[in-house]
## 1
Amino acid sequence: MTSRAAITLCLAAVLFAGCAAADAANQDPPANAELGAPAPAFTLKDLDGNSVSLTDYAGKTVVLEWFNPDCPFVKYAHGAKGPLRGKSAAVAEGGVVWLAINSGAPGKQGHGLERNKKARTEYGITHPVLIDEDGTVGRLYGARTTPHLFVIDASGTLVYRGALDNAPLGTPKGAPVNYLDEALSDCASGTAVRTSDTKAYGCSVKYGS
Amino acid sequence: MTPLLPLLLLLATPAPPKVTLAVHGAADGDQVTLGFELTITDGWHVYWENPGDSGMPTSMQLDLPDGWTAGPLLFPGPRAFQADGLVTYGYADRVVLLSELTTKDAPRAGVVTVTGRWLVCKDVCEPESADVRVDLSALPARADVIEATRALLPAPATAEDARITRAGDTLEIRTRADAAELFPNAALDLATGSARPRFAREPTTPGEEIVKSSADLLLRVTVRTQSSGEPLQAVLRTTRGGVTKDVLLELPRSDGPSD
């Protein structure tokens, strides 16, 4: 009796192996983000405690912006004349979703619900600001700086990672290029992103050790 | 009297800059060398031309009199800073950057306006800038500072400095030294994760006991991405018999030895 039950269980395990393997794959730490590959899934809480998942936006172009409200580069970009002021609202008209992610650890610069809620008001931010204080999603995407930008196309593929533009703090190196605008425009027209990988500049993401 | 007063004064006073800029000059015929000396507050650092995982390259914008042109900003080899799993390259305490100015026939007169911009960081960062005006006809004399800096600039590597091969994305750099460090330029992203590229002692023949004095140091790294536009270069710092030397390596874009 006991042994038959065990055999039945084994059989069930074999029959459901495919499914179980798929589940295990979902529960293991997902593979690090790679350009041209499916963007790794994540779920984080926004400043109001709501869970936000990348899969909530399947079928849409998504921008991920690594964020630290007290980093001078972020202050400049979201400041009154900065290139990210009102940007998420502008691209939302074209159906693009914008998610800011703060991977700063407790005690580090720009961390905490209070500070980020205040920053939302200061910078007129209308998009979700997601809290990743253990840095899991930041490390998954290889986010190094604030701001560090990633674009995921409507098919869920990571198509851009890098700098917002070639103009740290508004000073372009050569003719001004906004890599994010280029990537979003290429996504909208269904063409390959012309520059998919650039070197991000800015403050380091304030990961915990 | 109250502890509040110094605090209020502190808040009311703009923070002094973490970095100060002094400009030195030396002339040799139609060539002028400017030296940009950055003095950095203890515990803070500024960045090399490749800042690494984060940061911003230090830059000097020069507004020159008619007829003068400026060469690229020349950086001494940097040092590495590691924090929170990220690696950056730059300088603490003090660094001097150089730029060579040339002219065909313009007189050595007029004012150069130097606008220095840098990001200075410890656990947090502050962007700073400074303007300095230099009269070409009355250069601030510190030729010694410029000469000392010139000696620190990485010279092009020779065959004795390193042997480089590439197979696919794998790059191998061999050098005979007691210790070696590599600082890749911004065109080159190495797949070393958040660690630094590390040289290891290589036995001269497989299975042979490693003998420090007879073995080369080998660095084997994977190229994650390489920019198509700029040359792939790296500063190699070696120490041999207590002498440290920086050289500039040109790295191959595809299979084969570099030379």
## 2
Amino acid sequence: MENSLNYAAIAFDGVLALVLLVLAWQLLRSPNLFKAIVLFISFGLMLSLAWIRLKAIDIALAEAAIGAGLTGALFLTALDRLQRREENDREEQDARWKSQEKKPIITTEASDQGLAAMIRKNKNHFFSRPLQTIAAISVLALTCILGWTVWTLPPFSDQMSALVSSNMPISGVENPVTAVLLNFRGYDTLLEIGVLLLAAVGVISVAPSAVMRTGSSPSPILLLLIRLLLPFIILVSGYILWIGKYAPGGAFQAGAVLAAGGILLATAAVRFNLSASKAMPLATGIGLLIFLLVALATMIICGNYLQYPVALAGTLILVIEAAATLSIAAVLVRLFVGVKSDTDNPAPGEDSQTLIFEEENTIK
Amino acid sequence: MSLTDLLGTFLIVLAIPFFWGGSLGLLRFPDIYTRLHALTKADNLGLGLVVAGSILMSKEWTVGVKLLLIWLAVLVASTISCYLIANAARKRKINPWKIP
Amino acid sequence: MNIPLLYELVGVILLGMGLYSLVVYSHPVRKILALNVSGAGVFLFLVAAADRTSGPLPDPVPHAMVLTGIVVAVSATALALALACRIHQVSGTAPLTDNEPE
């Protein structure tokens, strides 16, 4: 029985590894971009299975929510925008540009090198055939060298995991990944929330409108889905946040689930105007703000930056995680709206409401 | 293994042909409506069998309730997204496949 | 060959595939997809390396690093896609097409 379970595990891992490689190869080489993105979403789900096989349950949760779900939605939205070729869209674009007096940056008088020329000539590959072969050989050599290095790696020392397990009692939580993420290496998480905010600032500066507009009002079935799922999503997000102390879970997974709820809401509304929302700037910034406040407070009280007093560690971690969940959800929704929206100015009369589902119903 | 473990494993193994049939339908059926039909019905039933087997094999009843909630949530979401996809296909004038 | 080693090698191969696609293809969405695949390969290597402990539990420090990495990767992808859409919106000439590879 033991041996057969072992063989089954080896077979499963072998098949999963093969599926991952074939999916990646297919998605990188498929000429149809929509197919590539769908394959990428299934690649993300297979990767979640691989995380579970490697005993990384927190990462499996995060990958299923963020890596497969959110990234797939972002890609599909961007692809839809990039492939608009209908005539009425061109006329709308021309009219908008004339009214704003914007000139295209990449004009036909520009030089014949670089990305612009490639786009104009509609070339699929960047380089000619000989250079492609050289690139392929170099990357193959790099992969072989890395593979040989990996093969001859010595067995790792258990120093880090021994340190973590011996210090778990003073960390304030029982899940080792949460302890590492928010206590032992809390500085990395602080900077990571800062990076999220930076990406939001970047998207806001590139696509300044936070307005999404769909042509028709949503079907009542979609509204039913929102009415059924959205409270459930909020509840599940809170549960994942709370359970992060004892079991796999935590702020990132909870934030990703909440962001999925926000994106569901955004996709169903007829007009979604994030810049009219008064809660949005607060929600976006509150994660970093609370984290910095806690860090400064611990520096003043305990002498070291981000050194929690042992009795308060659990509470502080929960407070930081709650603020981080809100912040992560707000930033991810803002990123999605930034990629999706293509209107630069809100129409008059939209400035006051955040969500509009039908012409008569308005929701703040 | 106890009786409940055996029954649970049997239910999970019983779900394999349902998932296989759903995927086969996705690959082989002629148009989008029939593919949606195969996917949602077969896969949801397969998931229901997996959940039933897992409930039998779970050690506490709270885990069983959570598994049931997962199945219900997947049922709701997949049904409604199946309708939305079919509606969008209809709006783009994709006609159902007719027997030639 | 044990299980972590298998996934480590898969991670290295994914990194190579993504790197080649990033360099060779010209469509921005393809490049961003290739970057994501490379990132997935690197994460796979890190987590598989974390499983090489002598006890039953894996090392949680690389898990935390990869969790951070996934969130940073999605925000970088979003920024890159917003930039690509902006280029498309502003460049005015033919949209970024994607021909069949020759």
